Amino acid sequence: MIKELRLRILPEEAVNEQSLRAVVCRETGENPEAIRAVRVLKRSIDARQRMVYANVSLRVFINEEPADNEFRTIEYKDVSGKRQAIVVGAGPGGLFAALRLIELGFCPVVLERGKNVHDRKKDIALISREHCVNPESNYCFGEGGAGAYSDGKLYARSKKRGSVDRILHIFCQHGAGRSILSDAHPHIGTDKLPGVIENMRNRILQSGGEAHFETCMESLIIKNDEVIGVQTRDGRLFMGPVILATGHSARDVYRYLASRQIAMEAKGIAVGVRLEHPQLLVDQIRYHNKSGRGAFLPAAEYRFVAQSAGRGVYSFCMCPGGFVVPAASGPEEVVVNGMSPSSRSSRWANSGMVVEIRSEDLLNRELNMRNAGLNISADTGSILPYGLSDNLSMMHFQERLERLCWINGGMRQTAPAQRMADFVQKRNSSDLPVSSYTPGLLASPLHFRMPEFITSRLRDGFRQFDKVSRGFLTNEACMIGVETRTSSPVRILRDRETMQHITLRGLYPCGEGAGYAGGIVSAAIDGELCAERVSEKLLFK
Prior knowledge:
This protein is of the alpha+beta class. It is 28% helix and 23% strand. Strand 2 and strand 3 (53-62) form a beta hairpin.
């Protein structure tokens, strides 16, 4: 017999299968010898009150053995010689598009500008150690995309467009831990996700697909308003319909599309800083305990949302027990991001703290400055002298902030930073706390480095967050600039039904880089949907 239970229990009772068995026997009255297995279906921590509980949904096998496979698997057949489609980008959108094409009987040809996930790791290490950014192999570019070495979170708020559960099961099939199927906030970890990605690539190759690394798309091949392939920088041609899954930092792709007048539009983004607290302090606040989390609770997380002057201020990509990392993808820019290993065991917690920005915010800012007779290009709040009709205006704004934070000359990735309470009170920080950011920090007034329409909202948001979590606004926390790569600054326009570009048949803008996703899972779902539309095109062509 299989029985499902939903329980609210103490954290120490949810720590492992043995403790859960004892709870099941207590709740059901079953003999311990009859309980063959206990599987966690869902698990979350409820720390809203002083007493912290674990909410668990369990599947209990009573006098019955569980199945060998605890997740659904997909059969990937040999597609050698089958009709092919080109997938530009090997991030989650591209990898899941390629796997779905194989599942549907078509041959994917994956083109990735960066290196494979193993070799890419060496270039990422050089950023921290030698402050050297390889523009083709970094935290943003390379196999696995921006998520491979920045945490591996599998959160997805929207479930309208596809099956989150299906994506998680595919991750498990390729080596992810079973816990992602049950955790409220599933997380693979930066130390384990690269192996999962490598297994996905091997699956593509074993099934007859192709994967070409250090192969950057130079241009689309267009005939009669239809994309029929791509040309790479080294002059090679790859023919077939194109799934364009290049990620949110492929600015050269956006510039190319703009030069060819391929329809796209500026998209709202969020900009701010990485905020780093001692993990112990976050544990104390979230778990209402001066001793922290103790032996049975995970590193505490938080999620904050507020409104300030009509715009959202919120935490983004919160990394408990994590590190702040240098995420620049080119010279003369500083960008930061966060990551956590699977153990979440570092002594720091960090998250993006960002402010929502819309196109009209930049327009209003520019018009006000012009009316006041101010020099736009000299002001930190400007977007540079680009017109606001420019579809790349948000991208230019990102670039401006990233260059303003590149403060050391040469090739260094030292980041400007300020204590949190000092920032709120507009004071310079005379010193900085010890940080996980290995390239180093330089005390710098971030309230001068970012425009007032961002900093004023951040200050207001921090005050609001401190009201609901007393002690959060503190000089023990350090703000590190600048967090700009929260999402794509453009949207490449596509038809809602066919998912093809609105004017170019055969081009399928995909995932986060095209402006249709916001994270690993949503990008993977979008990749699968694009693959399904491509398969329909190939079937009827």
